[in-house]
Amino acid sequence: MSKPQTAKNIQIPDSILREMLTDSEWRMLRNRWQIINLLEEGISIRKIAEQVKVGTDTVVRVARMVEKGNLRKILDKEKNPIKKLKTQTPWIFGKSG
To answer: Distance between CA 49 and CA 52 in Å, rounded?
Structure first.
């Protein structure tokens, strides 16, 4: 017997999403979104970490999620897509110069 098919595009209203997440999860989601926007502006990883009050490892993790994961595809489909991230530290992503 095969698994039942489920929709991949589920629209969850913000009010319901807010109720489903803990305060900590909501704060991290908000921080990650802020990190994505600051990376797009070309701000350095250290400055983003200071501004958002997270560790540099969190900023790098979010940048990698955007660059290598499905998050890039999702963001590209949105009305206001986020451009390819600008960073002054290309070595973080395994690029040389």
So the answer is: 5
